[in-house]
Fold:
Amino acid sequence: GQQVMQIPQYQHVQEGEDFTTYCNSSTTLSNIQWYKQRPGGHPVFLIQLVKSGEVKKQKRLTFQFGEAKKNSSLHITATQTTDVGTYFCAPAYNQGGKLIFGQGTELSVKP
Amino acid sequence: NAGVTQTPKFRVLKTGQSMTLLCAQDMNHEYMYWYRQDPGMGLRLIHYSVGEGTTAKGEVPDGYNVSRLKKQNFLLGLESAAPSQTSVYFCASNEGSYNSPLHFGNGTRLTVT
Structure:
């Protein structure tokens, strides 16, 4: 079946440093969504990527979808303490509604 | 607009007991999902529903049953709870395709002793 690998599992950074998490699939994706979960909270939708090579930005966050639509990344520039949380990718394989999540990357930011 | 509401918020069960988790959404969403979240394991899909009266298995369906008798409600049942089912359970819904963002409830923290 389809599998997605998200790396790294944990990332500890100093405030102001950059952060990147990667999501890699063994098969071609239809699209990919990204979510953020604050400690003690529930996942919240950030963005969806659909097109090959697509790049989208939300302030300090940059999302990319690979040319082959098998991988994606989320990059945060100059992290802040408000960025703390776990970031999940949720790739879609056109399976009629089934949405599987990556393992998540837990980001901690030291002030 | 309440969005996705899960009840209860917390529950402690003894091994072998049964319970039902309720998820209700007021957004007229077609698809609903149940996930469990364990440390280091991310979010794992238990069961999902693509419409009233339909259910399907996810990644980790064993030990759980679900029902979607009404479009706005999705129930998750544990017939005989086991300590391995200690987890945080999240319900989610979306408009009706894998392209639609998921809206999550606040979660139910279940402990099985």
